Structure formats: structure tokens, C-alpha cells
Amino acid sequence: MTTASNQAPLSKKDFKSDQDVRWCPGCGDYGILNAVQSAFAKLGKNLHDTVVISGIGCSSRFPYYMETFGFHTIHGRAPALATGVKVANPDLDVWLVTGDGDAMSIGGNHFIHLLRRNVGIKVLLFNNRIYGLTKGQYSPTSEQGKKTKSTPMGSIDHPMSPVSLALGAGATFIGRSIDTFGPHLENVIMRAAAHEGTALVEIYQNCNIFNDGAFDSFREKSIRAERTVELEHGKPVVFGADSNRGLRLNHDLQPEIVTIGENGITEADVMVWDEADTSPARAMAFAAMSEADFPVPLGILRNTTRPAFEKEVNAQVQTAQQNRGDQKLQDLLNGPDRYTI
Amino acid sequence: MTTASNQAPLSKKDFKSDQDVRWCPGCGDYGILNAVQSAFAKLGKNLHDTVVISGIGCSSRFPYYMETFGFHTIHGRAPALATGVKVANPDLDVWLVTGDGDAMSIGGNHFIHLLRRNVGIKVLLFNNRIYGLTKGQYSPTSEQGKKTKSTPMGSIDHPMSPVSLALGAGATFIGRSIDTFGPHLENVIMRAAAHEGTALVEIYQNCNIFNDGAFDSFREKSIRAERTVELEHGKPVVFGADSNRGLRLNHDLQPEIVTIGENGITEADVMVWDEADTSPARAMAFAAMSEADFPVPLGILRNTTRPAFEKEVNAQVQTAQQNRGDQKLQDLLNGPDRYTI
Amino acid sequence: MVQDPHNGTQATDKSVEALDEVIIRFAGDSGDGMQLTGSQFTRTTALMGNDLATFPDFPAEIRAPAGTLPGVSAFQLRFSNFDIHTPGNQPHVLVAMNPAALKVHIDQLPRDGLLILNTAKFRPADLKKAKYAENPLEDGSLDGYRVVQVDLEKLTHETLKESPLDKRSKDRCKNMFALGMLYWLYNRDVEPTLKALDDTFAKKNPDIAEANKQVVKAGYNYADITGLFQTSYTVSKATDLPSGSYRNIMGNQALCLGLVAASKKSNLPIFLGSYPITPASDILHQLSGYKNHGVITFQAEDEIAAVCAALGAAYTGKIGVTTTSGPGLALKGEAIGLAVMTELPLVIINVQRSGPSTGMPTKTEQADLLQAMCGRNGESPVPVLAATSPSDAFATAFEAVRIALEYMTPVIVLSDGAIANGSEPWLIPDETELPGISVNFLPAATETDEPFMPYRRNPETLARNWAIPGTEGLQHRIGGIEKADLTGNISYDPDNHEHMTMVRENKVAGIANSIPDVTTVGPDEGDVLILGWGSTRGPIAGAVRAMEPSGKKVSGCCLRYINPFPNNLGDLMKRFKRVLIPELNRGQLSMLIRNKYLIDATSYTKVQGLPFYTDELVKRVDQILEELQR
Amino acid sequence: MVQDPHNGTQATDKSVEALDEVIIRFAGDSGDGMQLTGSQFTRTTALMGNDLATFPDFPAEIRAPAGTLPGVSAFQLRFSNFDIHTPGNQPHVLVAMNPAALKVHIDQLPRDGLLILNTAKFRPADLKKAKYAENPLEDGSLDGYRVVQVDLEKLTHETLKESPLDKRSKDRCKNMFALGMLYWLYNRDVEPTLKALDDTFAKKNPDIAEANKQVVKAGYNYADITGLFQTSYTVSKATDLPSGSYRNIMGNQALCLGLVAASKKSNLPIFLGSYPITPASDILHQLSGYKNHGVITFQAEDEIAAVCAALGAAYTGKIGVTTTSGPGLALKGEAIGLAVMTELPLVIINVQRSGPSTGMPTKTEQADLLQAMCGRNGESPVPVLAATSPSDAFATAFEAVRIALEYMTPVIVLSDGAIANGSEPWLIPDETELPGISVNFLPAATETDEPFMPYRRNPETLARNWAIPGTEGLQHRIGGIEKADLTGNISYDPDNHEHMTMVRENKVAGIANSIPDVTTVGPDEGDVLILGWGSTRGPIAGAVRAMEPSGKKVSGCCLRYINPFPNNLGDLMKRFKRVLIPELNRGQLSMLIRNKYLIDATSYTKVQGLPFYTDELVKRVDQILEELQR
Ligand SMILES: Cc1ncc(C[n+]2csc(CCOP(=O)(O)OP(=O)(O)O)c2C)c(N)n1
Ligand SMILES: Cc1ncc(C[n+]2csc(CCOP(=O)(O)OP(=O)(O)O)c2C)c(N)n1
Ligand code: SF4
Ligand code: SF4
Ligand SMILES: [Mg+2]
Ligand SMILES: [Mg+2]
Fold this sequence. Notes:
Structural class of chain C: alpha/beta
Radius of gyration of chain A: 22 Å
Distance between the termini of chain C: 31 Å
Order of helices and strands of chain A: HEEHEHHEHEHEHHEEEEHEHHE
Bound molecules: thiamine diphosphate, iron/sulfur cluster, magnesium ion
Oligomer: heterotetramer
Low-confidence stretches of chain A: 1-5
Largest interface: A-C, 59 and 75 residues
Low-confidence stretches of chain C: 1-14
Helix content of chain A: 25-40%
Strand order of the largest sheet of chain C: 11-10-12-13-15-14-20
């Protein structure tokens, strides 16, 4: 389905369309485009079975730059339209590109329903914590107190965490990466591609025009090791240049930072990450950690299995066709109560 | 604000409007109406400062039966309209009545944004796990495999848990009760009334026409003690006729049922409920428990503090008025660049 | 042709009279099973070869409190031995199961009408619930009606003495007693109902099947033995209907069959995205039972998701359909605009109900025509079709799919509450005679092909290429921003925008060349043309037929195609001195006609949540004829 | 009056000529600061007492890649010593900061026009980005234009030799050099700009303020010293404008001031519920800065939440306002219907942009009129007003609030992209002369009052009672289901539904009695009446004025009130042989006029994302005049 049959595998360049890329110079979107094209080439995808669907926003310009099928839809509705695409033709490889406004604000309802249904769609959420295309209003993911054009005295709304919301909605796969973390991002995208149901990838993306530096407190190379923590399945949750600091939950399920080698703490005291937890509680505890006080969790936050929606829908149709597929149109039209005049 | 000044406190009957109640005989909605009227009387509310706002559905007929101000809005949009009411006049006591379809389906986006903003509105979500008013299609809270008019071969969608979703959206108060649990329900409603931000109360409600018996597996008196568990702040989470069974989370944060007195388990091994947890993880673990394998948690699942949205909004206006409130309309019209011809 | 019934031709058997037509109204509590009773009588009557039309009228409440006025549910059936067009206005027979039903409906029974009352429900408490101060059975207010009083409850219970059912379940059978009585009165065949009861209940609950069957028969026998009615009546087969195979069909059913037929004829599966809403939900229900015909139904989280999912499915090469009612259509406007811009086929079915806002959801109206035409931002032309009767909904749905696929455009189909739940006999088409719908997906592009252009068009229809994902070499990007001609790339070029605006407009206008000319009931010239659309067809045809004998020069015409109008409509209207446009709104078709043809059409509107009655139209036409004579 | 500029009356000083009007177009990269340059020139020019009109034209991209064609941003300013109506069509001067700007705009500069080019940006790489095969500076394609070549970058850097700024920041000042040159060329005062630069930057970054100021002055001096232009020009104060206090104002600004003024005059605070969308977002921005005037702004999660929150606020007795553009209006339809049914005041502002669907978001259009009229389910009448120019937006917003409050109804205000971002001088009203808006909340009910009826009406306006929550004794329930007359209880009664439908319709129709008669530019009878609405006012007035000297019997008239129409409109149109309706759509007002007045109005449409030009209208009128003579 995603590999062309008798053709040489495509290169990253083959995934570039002939359209000029029109994001602002320096925009984080470029890095994501690059990572996606690279990942698609590595995954051996072909062009014509791949569909990239987006809403409206700077990020949602994405499909124009991909030499695949593409649908730039309307604001917030891409998850619904993509659901139609995937259910109608499960053989297509459907990717959805959306922004924090597109997905969390106007599209919030479609977003949560996509996740709970577990439609086999891969969602790349470009979270720049701002409305880019409409020139810089705060978004549902903007930090409280943010001064923007529409909030001269600071925003009041408590920010929404896409990961927490997705957990609440029953997401089966959640990954997180950063626009400038090329190989990391590529890897998370490839993990998402391998997931059977809905795979959400939150990507922190710098909007250098309206929200420059939003992620500087943990994105910069020099502090990355201290300020982010990579969640690896089956491995202890450690971070820091020397990997000697770890995270665990205390009795009240509050996260705690511990230093291995101090106060008798060993690696065994650190929580071992299990992306396949039945309960979303652990991921929730991590998603809800304060960004200021804890390292930012990256990698795969959740990866569990539930049948993909489109498969079950089509299976019902197949069953019905096996059982009653021989009904002729004429019989259907006639119905049970035909009479003649 | 909610107590009439120089009047005798109102009785439950005073909260009944002159309109005939038109739910089906036997509908769970009657019990909820009764509990609300009783709670309102006990809380010493007055009629004219109270506004009951609803969407569309059987449940949303509620305002007509209350002798308060009432607004029966459109499907799914009541949270948005109520936000306008409360922000425009924070002195009003605003209650929102909604159904599982109204709040979780068409109104999902407004629902989550209400919760994250923490607007001082009390939400009564009548969850009958069905679309009542449109005569019996499955709803987002219906169990998977449900056969309804629109799903003759069983529903495919994974159900949404209002409590999990609310936790993901950042809810500050979540309670849960059952239509027939009069005093319990009344108490949860009174607790919600006391909360400063958005208070969500999920009420399991039997629709005896289209989903009769949906909650029989834990609602009936004879099994209630075994099949439900009351979460009480600061107390161990125990249940059963003899209160000798308890819940705790194992190392993987999976809930476990333990029996006090067996295998050396004492009350100290049982989890102590803390409704005021900073992290939503514990509540999430409980919300996600399988209904079949665990007792159903009732009572107050979460109760934390964040400033109410409407207060902060109005505080900004007041600050601005204090600082620049003396600007005359004429000055505003003139602007900085006036000239004369 | 129309005659006072119960005064019909004397039949040979002393106790049997032959009638040309009968109108029966069953009215009772929501819980009394009036809709079921009505549909059983209807089905039996259809099988006996009468023409018929039905009008169900039920409350918004699922089960309003028993015995109250808002809880009354009614079902009207008109059947005849000739071609009829409407379920009629005043009934000849009113069956009232309780005082509330009597109170709500008695005004419409003519004084010599037959009134069958269930005396079991005229206790003081019942009267109070129905807000009767006095007992109407006793205060003389029913004088003049031919009242037949029956204690249906007692008789039902007596019949079911031996049945193992509990009291409540037995009670529920009483509607079958009334049905049995009416079967005797109109010499209907009891067998089909007995069979239907078996089919419905025998498996799940044989006791209930048995009880109901006993009670129908008991009702029949009771009427026979007691001589409660002096005479029984017959209505013979309709003779002026075209001969062929028929079935009785409701509008929502016919829509579903039309969609499935178009699916088979185009060899494309249906994908329905829908969100439940009265009175459209039954389309979702019915189509979700057609999975064996390849139909996928998706109950979405809201109307916007429903239309977007359908559009997504259309993008992949399926027949995308979405169904709703007025408030839902209001929500879908933005997404329909996206379908216009991306030029993808899509069928939007709007079963209209009374508005504005939530309005009166269970009542009919035609006030969404302008919303269908104009309810989107920008210049966003969409073809609009309207089903003109329950059975016509089949062809309308079929045509909508054809137009959507042939012209690569969203199409809006308007139906309404009266069509959706009303029924009439339908001359079942022969599958092989249905036209084929040809669909050409663009084939995979090879290296040597000329460059692929997603917005290249069929020069005749102006339909653009349909290049579905999964086809090698056809990768392209579409979206809601204005498209450059041919390439479909984003374009802000002023001339291109004007050009594409005109292409979209002309494409829709050009559909006029693929639809039939409109025809008239009556001659195609004269004094007054009654011009309607959608469900006004019945009353218009009825009015024209009613006026025919008097020699008045009145014709009727009812549009199934509203955008574009049939090519001959302008000329047709000019051949009449006056055009009268009756609509269940405040003049919406009238606005379109006056604007386009600059004809001083007279608008005649009714906004009561009810269909027009034939006699209302006759009266209005008479006024106009008088004016014309002055 | 309109004259060829740069050929104007010779002034006394040999090197200074006086002109009546000038049109300048600044064009450059999105990053070149053209909008800022244009607005500075505009502000200065306003302060110097000219009449003026502006037309900004920027790309959808925030910062399209530098130097590309889609990245070109432009700002046109027309200023004059007489009353003008439009920003004009062809400029007299084009400033092109790079080859892309040249390529996009050169077609519109007349051959003898002045072309100022930044030669620093004509390197091969720049030419390639602009898709020039040859260098236009060298291939003779600019022959005939009066080309002035300046290396703005070099000159700017020279000026800023001493500045501590980095190269990139210095580069950014080059637009100020061009501005300075034009200030010299048109004898503009540099001071206001120097002050503005201080106000904007001095606190945050004094180096930037200083650099910009130096560069403006350097540009001015450069033009002065080098004798680059043979002549400089003056345009004296506009003399035919009414005297008074003025400010230059953009449409979005004026809307905001109109709302706040109405708030003060009605003593009710504004509650704005909005979701950002181009080109309406600036209203949200501006109103969020008016908290000191009691304005609450709520940035909602989507358009539906925005309108619902505003309606909720209206319910509590505030002025509920929601602002959006076309796609957003499509989403609000259902909720506006709820406002119609509940009869609550609400102001919905729709700043139109090119459609359908996403369309061309930064381009103007007038294609949402029918959406405003009909984009809801059921019969859902709403008053519709349209701002006719940037400054008229003030009065239009004020009137919308007045009508909403006095008639208890939602009101739709249409503006468009050209009005929103365009600007013109505004005769600032005297606060005390603005009419008061009286609002009467129903007072608390005492035991002895007659029973409170939420749907009792003011017999004159038909406005229902406004009984706000918190008022003792006025508890009642409202909602979207049809209301019983007076009580407002739920009602399914057929006659009540018809009655209420008519009341809602008549209430809106009755607003005609509270609005002024429409007036004409030119005599109120003649051969051709150019009838427009909204932003076509400028071009219409311009066309009429342009044709006046020739003695053609052409008048113009532009509607601010569209639903209902002014009472005198029908009569007015009858006094002309032909009515021409120019619209930036495919004939939407035309449809309303033809339907209502059955007049064979001629529709003239333009759908290019651009306003009408005066000469287009003149040409079309001439054709009609010719037809009339035949
Ligand atoms: C129905 C509708 N409402 C509003 C808009 C205006 N709009 C376009 S993009 C956008 C938000 C963009 O924010 P986000 O999704 O975070 O994307 P970004 O530009 O930041 O990548 C808005 C409000 C629109 N196009 N359509
Ligand atoms: C815009 C719109 N879409 C659909 C409907 C139809 N509708 C009315 S209520 C309802 C769902 C009711 O379910 P729920 O919210 O669970 O309420 P319940 O009747 O079960 O109390 C639907 C789909 C509507 N009234 N408006
Ligand atoms: S505005 Fe921000 S998000 Fe949008 S393209 Fe520019 S830098 Fe990127
Ligand atoms: S349908 Fe169900 S939810 Fe609705 S009133 Fe009846 S019993 Fe209650
Ligand atoms: Mg963003
Ligand atoms: Mg429900």
C-alpha cells in the first residue's frame, strides 16, 4: 500500500512539489517539511497513495509543498474530511497537518472525535502557540498572560495541552518532538507511521514572526539535555548531560526529579517508561508537569492498540455483503409489499 | 448574590414553573429535576438571579420546568452562550443543563473550552448514553457494539468518557452521581454550587424508552454498595456492603481491588482519596477504570482551585477603567491626529 | 370525481356501499400506537390497489405525559379508486382514543362525520388532563356527529382473558381493536396485518404477536356482529393509475432507494455522513441497513463533520451524501462552499421543517429554499432540486446523484416533513430501465501523457477532471483558495478569479440542458398558472383537477428542478395571464421567479407548519380569476 | 476638476507646480514596509488638509519569500485639493522597491508616469525571483516612463554609517529614504513622521528611531540637493470639504468608534465575541484596547461560540457584537436564527472578502449580501446595513446598534476588505450631537402588576420587552422553539406560528420608518440612476461627478440600508429611465431590487477581488445612454 511496486524507492527530493514554499524565512515549518519528506522517503512511501490533508493556518499550507495528493480544506475541519477519506478508501495513507488554532480552537471537536474513533490517520500538530496566519493572536495553547494583538493586557485563558486533551479523548498514540530536532522528529514521525490507529504527533514549532523564542527555554542545543526528557519504552526516565537525573511519581502521583547517586537513589528508583500502559494515568501525569519546573517530555508518550475505525466500518459492510450481498437492486426496489394494478 | 435579601427563603416548590413537565413517564430526568429544585431551595437561592441554560435534547427541556430565568438554546452551543451570560454579568448564578449528545457530540468543542477557561458555570450533564430526543441513535458515550437505529450491526466508535475528557481539558471540578440517588445527587449538586470555577456534574440518567437499564449493572439498590465506590476527600477509597474492599493503584498505575483483612491488607494499603490533587493523573486512573471490572466511582472526582474566567476578564476592564477610565468619548473620537479644515 | 363519501353509490348487498374515496384520521396518545395503526391500514389499503396519500402528525415529545393535549399523535389516510394527490384536509372518520385527541381534532371533522370514541378514557381525570370542563360525551357538544362509542379497553381485555400478558401489555393492544373495526367498516383484508404482526413480534415475543392478532380479529368481529355501523363500505381499486407493480412508500424511504439505485447505476458506493435530526434521521437509519449494497454510513459528531466526511469520501471517488434538516444545513454552508470551490460531487439532502431556529421540528415547511440557494459566503452556485411527493423523492435523489457526478458539483435536494413521513403508492421502476450514470475517473498518467491538469474540463458539461487519490501520476493539490484555471494552483489573479467565478456559474446554469422541460397539469396556456415547487405538487394538482369540471382556465406546474430552472419555464409562464406561486414560506420561489423573469407573479404563502389544502388554492385562484375579469 | 497631474498650474516658484490631485503607489516586498510607508505619507497628507483615499493591497502570506511575485505588497494613496471618492485606478507615481514589485504593478502606470526604482535590488538573482528573463532597466521595456533610479540600499547605508545598528536593521530603513524623497517631491511636512517614529520606537529601541529619522531626512535632502526631479509639486488643502475637525480613518477603526459611541449613547457596555479572521481581525484588536470604555472582548474558540457568547451577553442586557468575514458568517447562521426567534439585540459585523470558500482572503468583494439576507433556516428576517466608505462605517455601526436595541433584533452590518483597510478623512462628529439611544429594561415586577409577558411588544416598533436576568419577578424562559404570542411559551399552534412569522417580518419591515430617505449624487431624476450599496459609493460618486460636466443625465445613489430599503427608493428609481446596479458580485442587490420593485434594473458586476474604477462605471453608463438613444 505505501510502497510502489516495481519502481525504485523514492528519494526525499521526489516528495517536493513544484510549488514555491511560502512560509516566512526562518519559520519552523521548513524543518518539519524537511523531516516529513525525509521520513516518507525512508519509509518507502509512494506518491499516489499518500494524501496530505490540512485545515487553515500557516502550517496548513503544507500539502502544497508535497508531491503527493493534497487537500487544503477549511479551518478546523480537516479531521472530519480526512475521516471520510480514510473510511472511504482505507488503502490510502492519510496524513493530517494542523496548527494549534486549527486543531485546538475551531477544530477541537473533530480532533477529539478523531482520536476516540482511532481512525488510521497520522496527525502532525504544529504547535507554535500562536495564530500565525491571522497575524498573531493568542491561541488555546498560548501561555496565560500572553500579550498579543487581541490581549493587550495579557491572555486570561488557561492553556490547553494537546497531549492531555488527547489522553482524555482516548488517543492510542501520542508522540512529541520539536521543529529543529531533525533526526528526533523524523524518528517520531516514522513511529507514528507505523501505528495502526490515529497517531498524534505534537511538534513544537517556532513562529519567528509572532511568537519567536516560544520554546527557547528547552529547545536550544546547550540546554536540551537538561530541559527535555526522552521517553523510551522500557527504559528508565532519565535526563541531563550525564543522564543522571530521573523522574518518578510520588505517592500522590506528583512527578518528582531525583538525582541518581544522591541520597541513595539508584536507577531502580527512577520510573521505567511504558508507552503501552492500559491506563492513560501515567502519561497524564507527565503531560501535566509544569514546563518551568520539569524537563519537557519528548518521544512517544503513548502507544496502545485498538482496532482502527475504518477497518471495522468496512468489515461490517463486508459482513453484510457476505450475508445479504445477493440482494438485487430490483428486489430492494420492490420491497416486501409489492402489488400490481 | 444567590440569597434573596428580605424575603423568606424559597421552598423547593417555588422553583417549579407553571409548565407541564413533558418527559416520558419513568424518565430519569424527573429525579434530577427534583434533586435540583431541592438543592436550590436548600442553598437559599432566589429565582431572579438564577439562570438555567440548555442546549437541545430531552434533557435540555429542563429550563422550562424551573421558575428561574431560562434559555433553551441550540444544539451543543449552550456552553458558549452561557459563557457570554456569565462574563457579561458575573453576579448571575448560571447553570447549564446538557445531554451526552449535546455536550460530547456537537458541543464537544465548547464543552472543553468552557472547562479550560474555568468560567463560573455549573454544568449538569445528563448522560443517558443515547440520543433521546431524536429517538434513539447511539451517542458518543454509548458502549461499543450498541445496536441502535443508526447502527443495526452495532456501533464501532470507542465511547468518550466525559470525566476523562474533562480532565484532559483541565477541569477544576468534576462530580458524578445517578438520577435515582436523590440525596447523593443533591449533595453533589450542592458541592458543585460551592465551586468557584466551572463545575461539571456527570449524572447517569436512565432513558427508559431508548436505553432502558443502561446503568442497571450498578444503579440498583441491591448492588449499589458492591458496584459503586464513593470518593470522599481524605478518606480511604473503600466500597462493599461491609466497606471492606478498597482500591489502590499498582506500580504501573493500574487500579487494583483489594480486600481489607485478606492477604495482610489493611486500610492503610488502600488509596486515600484527594480530590484536590494538583495532577489530574489519579482522577484519570479512576475515570479510565473498566466499568465491568471495577466499581463505578461516584462523588467528587476532582476539586481544585483556579481563578474564575469571568472575574479575571472583568478585573482587566476595571483596571483599564481605573487607569484610563477618564477618556471622554470625544477624545476617543478625536484620536491623536486631528486637524481642522 | 370527488364525492361526499358515505353517501356513495348503493352497492348490491344491502349493507355495503361503494365509495370513491375515504379520509380516516386516527388520533390518540403518543403511547397509543396511532402511527402503527395508520401504517397498517395504509399497507393493507395499498395492497388492495387503491390510490392513497398519508399525513402523519406527531408531537415533538417522545412520550408526552399521557392524556395531555401536546401528547396527541395523529395519522391521516386518504384512499380512493382514482388518482389523488394529497392526504386531504377534513377527514370523514375520526378515531379518537382519548379526550385530548378529541379536543385537538374535532374541529376538523365535518358535522356529519363519523366519530369513533374510546369511552374507557373519558373518566374525570382524563377529561381534566385534556382541559375539558364538561364531559363532551354528555354536554351535547358532539351533537350532529355520527358518534360511535366503544370501550376499547374493556373489549380488549375481554378478548385477551386467556393471554399470559400483563395488564399494561394487554392495554397496548387496544389500537388493534379499533383497527379491526375499521377493517370491517371498509371491507379491508385482515390477513396482511396478521402476517405483519407475526413478522414483527413472533420471534421476539410470540405472546404479543398472538394477542395483537386476536384483538384485530376481535375488533373486526365486534363490528360485524354488533351491527354498530349500519352499513359497511368499499372503495374499489384505483383504475386511472398506470398499470404496473406498486408499493406504498414514504418520502425518506424513496430518497434512500433513489440513492442506492444511482449507486448501482454509476457503480460507485454511497458514503453517507450524517448527524441525526428530525425529520431527516430516518434516512440515516434506513441507509445504515443497506450495508449489503455497499453503503457506508458514518454518524458524525455534528453536521459539519458529516458534510466534511462526505466530501472527503467524494474526493476518493465515492458518492458522498449528507442528510439533514434546516438548522443543520445552516451549519454546513461553509463546507458546501469548499465543495463548490474544489468542484467535487456531493449530495446534500435537506428535509425541511418549520423554522426559524429550532422552530417546530416535527412540522413541515418550505422555507429553506433561499438558504439552499444563497446560504454560503461568496458567489457559490449550487444546483437545487426538490422532491415533489413521497414517491418522487426516488427520482429526485437519483437525478441529484447523476447531476453531481456528471457535473462535478455539490447538489442540494430539498424535501420536507410532509414528504418525509407521508406516503403514497409508487410505481416501482424496472431496474433495467433506469438510465446509466457514467463516471470517468482519470486513468493513471504515464510519462508520455500531456501534463495532467486537475481543472481541465469537459467542454460540454464544464465538469472538471475527477482524479482520485491512489491513481499513479495524478498527484495534485486542491483546496478552498481560488484556483488557477487548468492547473488548480492557488491564484490571486483578478482575471482568473472572474473567469473561474463565471465557469462555476455557467457550469451550474448549463445543467438546464440535461433536465426535462417542465410539464403542466392541464393545458399549457390559460388564465392562471399555479406554479409550485416540491411538496406543493399534490395540492396544486388537486386544485387544478377540482377546477377542471368548471371550465376555468387554470393549470398547474410544479418544479423538481429549481436551480437551474427548466429551459421552458419562462415561455410557459408567459402563456398565462397570471402566475400564482403558493409556497409554505413567505415567497421564496416567488423571489427567484420575479428576479429572473421579471413577471409579476402573485405569491401565496402559508406558514403554519401544515401543507396547503386543495380548497385553499381553489379559493385563491377564484379570487384571481375574478380580478382578471374586472 | 480632474486634471492631468504634473501638468498642473504653474506656481510662482519656478521649481514648484501646483496640482489638484496625485495618486502614488508604493510597492515592494512584504518585508519592505510598504504599508508603513504608505500610512505615514497618508497621515502627513491628512494633517496637511488634503482630501484623500487609500487602498492597501497585501499578500495572504505573512512574509512570502523575499523578492517573489506573490510577496509583493502595495499601498495606493490618492490625495487632492477637492472632494474625492476613491483611491483611484492608475497611479501617477509608482515606487517599486524590487523587480517583483515592478512586474506586478508596471502595467497600471500610464506611459508618462513617474517610476521610482530601487536599483539595489536589480541583481540577476532578484530578476530571476521576479521571473524577468531580461533586466527591465536595460531592455528598453521601460521607455516612455519617467524613470528615476536610486540605489536606496547604498544611500541608506551611507546615511547610517555611524549608526550602531546591524546591517539587516539598517537595510530595513530604506523605505524611509523613499518616503523622504517623496516628501520633497510633494512638499510634505517631514515633522509628523519624525514624531511618529519617536513615538513608536524611541522607548523600545532609540537606535532604530534615530536611524529611521535620519534616513527620512536624508531622502528628503537627497531629492532636494541632487535635483533628481526637475520640479516639485504641491497639492493645496481641500477646499470643498465641510469645515470642521478631521482625522484620517480606516473602516475597521471607524466601526469600532461607532460601536463605542453607541455604547456611550445607550449607556450599555459592549460585549464583543469574536474569532480572528482576515480582514475583520483588526476590529477585535482595536476593541480589546477599549477596556477603559467598558468594552469586554472575548476571543472565542470559533465563530459559533463567538456569536453565541455575544447573544448570551445581549440576554443579560449588554450590547452583544460579533465580528467576522464570509466563511465565519456561514458558520453563524444557526445562532443568528436563535437571535431572531428570541428577539434579542445583536450586531453581526461581516467584513466581506473574495469567495467562495476560503477564496482570496486579502481581496475585497461584496458577495455576502444574499448570505446576510437568506443564510439561515426558515423565515428569519434580519435588518442588513452596509458601510459605504471607511468613514461611513462609524455611522453605520452606530445605526446598527440603535436598530438592534430599539427593535430587539439581530442586525447584520456588511463592510468589505477595501473599506476595512482603506482610509479617508473623517469629519469627527461632536459627541453631544450624536443622538441618544434609549433602552428600557423592564423594571422589577411587583405583586400587583399585570402579569409579565416577555413577548408583549411596543406597538410602534413591535420590539418585545427586554427583561434581563437579575430583575425580580421577571423570570421567564426563552429559546429557539416557536413562541406563543405574549407569553413566549413553546407553541406548535399553526395560527400562532403564522402570526409570529408575520410579526417578525413586519418588525423588520417597520424599521424603514426609522431610517432616512436615500439621497442622490446629482439630480433625483434623469436618464440613468447608478444604484449601489456599500463600498461602491466612492466609484459611483466619482463616476457621476466625472460625467456632470458633459451634461449627461446621470445620478448616483448608494444604499447604507438594504433591509429594509429606504421608503423612497421605489419612487426614486421610477424617476429614471434606467437603473444600473454595479456590484462586486454576480448581481445580488439586483436580485433584491428586481424582485421587490419589478424594475428591469441592469446589473453590472465585477468579481476580481478589486473595487470598481470610476472609468469602468463611466464607460458602462455611456453604453446605456447610447442604448437609450437608439
Ligand atoms: C472559518 C474560519 N475562521 C477563521 C479563519 C481565520 N484563520 C485562518 S488560520 C487561523 C488560525 C491559525 O492558527 P493555527 O491553526 O495555530 O495555525 P498557524 O498559522 O499558527 O500555523 C484563523 C483564525 C478562517 N480561515 N476560517
Ligand atoms: C443543529 C442540530 N442538529 C441536530 C439536532 C437534532 N438533535 C436534537 S437533540 C439531539 C441529540 C440529543 O441527545 P442528548 O444530547 O444526549 O440529549 P437527550 O435527548 O438524550 O437528553 C439531536 C441530534 C438539532 N436539534 N440541531
Ligand atoms: S507567521 Fe509564523 S508560523 Fe506563519 S509562516 Fe511566518 S513564521 Fe511561520
Ligand atoms: S426519550 Fe428517554 S431521555 Fe427522552 S424523555 Fe423519554 S425517557 Fe427521557
Ligand atoms: Mg499556530
Ligand atoms: Mg442523551
